[in-house]
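[step 3/7] inverse_fold.run input=structure_tokens len=126
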């Protein structure tokens, strides 16, 4: 697999299988646990990741809420093998989310623009 060097000069893979990110932890800048990545949503026409679906809350997978996080809103922490989402935990509590039985139409650009705006990110199609 192609490799690049991170900020500390260590070799890292720049291309990964999407399923290797499933279960990766997401924290904010204060190191508060925000949940885990459940899925990556791919825009097949453009060949790019549109959203990471974040699972947050609940207990042992019960009652958790899902959030579509714009891929561009996430930063990679290679030291800790986790992602950083620069939001306050309370903001995530109030974020537009969905449950496992009722997914939004993630191809809907009106919905996508609202989600991107909530996280201060550019829509993936721009």
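[step 3/7] decode complete -> sequence:
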């Amino acid at each position: 697999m192609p490799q690049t060097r991170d900020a500390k000069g260590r070799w890292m893979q720049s291309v990964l299988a999407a399923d290797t990110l499933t279960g990766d932890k997401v924290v904010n800048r204060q190191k508060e646990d925000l949940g885990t990545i459940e899925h990556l949503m791919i825009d097949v026409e453009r060949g790019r990741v549109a959203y990471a679906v974040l699972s947050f809350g609940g207990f042992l997978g019960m009652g958790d809420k899902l959030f579509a996080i714009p891929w561009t809103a996430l930063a990679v922490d290679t030291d800790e093998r986790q992602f950083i989402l620069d939001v306050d935990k309370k903001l995530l509590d109030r974020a537009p989310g969905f449950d496992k039985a009722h997914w939004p139409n993630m191809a809907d650009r009106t919905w996508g623009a609202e989600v991107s705006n909530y996280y201060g990110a550019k829509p993936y199609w721009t």
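[step 4/7] annotate
Residues 3-118 form a domain with the SH3 type barrels. fold (CATH 2.30.30.240).
The chain has two helices and eight strands.
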